[in-house]
Amino acid sequence: MSRFHGRLTTVAFDESLQGTALEPTSHEEMQREKKCYIESYGCQMNFNDSEIVAAILQERGYGLTTDAAKADLVLINTCAIREKAELTVRKRLQEFKSLKKHKPEMLVGVLGCMAERLRHRLLEEEKLVDLVVGPDAYRSLPALIAEAESGQKAVNVLLSREETYADISPVRLNSNGVTAFVSIMRGCNNMCTFCVVPFTRGRERSRPPESIIRECRELFDQGYREVTLLGQNVDSYYWIDPQSQQATTFAQLLEQVARISPWLRVRFSTSHPKDITDEVLLTMARYPNICKYIHLPVQSGSTRILQLMNRTYTREGYLKKVQRIREILPDCGLSTDIIAGFCTETEADHQETLSLMDICSYDMAYMFMYSERPGTLAARRYTDDVPPEVKKRRLQEIVEKERIHALKNMQKEVGKVRTVLIEGPSKRSEQDLCGRTDQNKMVVFPKKHYRKGQYVNVRITGCTAATLLGEVVEACVPDMA
Ligand code: 5AD
Ligand code: SF4
Question: How far is CA 255 from the centre of its chain?
């Protein structure tokens, strides 16, 4: 699973989903002629938000198009995590502005994480957009569209303490029909000093477990075979039932989802090193269908930098968690996020990051140069004092190290037989299929008579740094003993 998408992705109706739409009344039919185009940036949660937006719009009779030029409404779901993400969005908005010159009635809207901070500039100074809607205000989209249609500038960037869109069944966009993402919580209460998320997405709140189970069960009934439970910090998921006062922790939620069916794989992202518990690891160990893969962002290998980042764990604390994962789940895949060149980072701090990588031997890492974000604690308290060329060189060294470990871990797979959930044809060849192992490694193998959504045992015969190559040994049923 790619957790962070820096690049542009357009979304389209899955034809099979169009078939499940309610019979429209004639009034709705007229409205259905309106088409919306949505483009999404940022993390998987943001992509999942676009699916919620699509559901809200579909309810109001909008169809979706993959061609912005044919759209009545163009929405761009934005990310604010690094400056680069924002710059890309601004460039796209300029392009939409020129599209609008030929089609003045077309509405352009900004959704998501950039909405709050840039609303004045986007609406007033640059006149790039007609509506601006923050991540907790998507229910008001239909009303805001009506306002914008009447020529007013429409804005709602209010953050909520309750909104989880629990009752909305997302319209699955760009779906392979096998794997889906399910948001279990929104917002974040950790105050990492580099991070804009608490400001853009607000306070942390968990979604009622019944609604999560319902969504996962519906997905399973529709033929999906893998769900990824999403949250900024899934381990702090916590729900108290208002009637019974009974609490549900993340480990309990995970167990409930895993019990839907042994044929449903369960993944989750993201874990915080300070919060991941033995209870979660032991639950993972008990259920063969909970995938043995953990994304555990470290950010830095230096305790001094971790303190400045307000990560609330030390290098040693992080390494202890990794050791615990290895004890309880010896075959667990492990990935991370790393930031190069945070404020005051010295060469010695950087070396500590590299040496921590040697100890953890990650299967994969998302690696970034530090990018100061306005309004964050780091922007207010510290100076962004590592020169860009130093950040770049350190990032390069981190990337090189990651490649070495990733390749070594891939090579270790050669000769093993792994259970793979088939996701569809491989990108390179129609003659091959692809799917992931439990540990989240992509495998490509000859198609033969196998099909999407099936579990197969694959003997791994070779690899690159990113992909395993193999041959199916047999179709299989998951071992649920
Ligand atoms: N600069 C660089 N990387 C950042 N991340 C978050 N904020 C910043 C920033 N200001 C990275 C972290 C986080 C991931 C989603 O993005 O590594 O885990
Ligand atoms: Fe996701 Fe954070 Fe980017 Fe918002 S700012 S889209 S929460 S990565």
Answer: 21
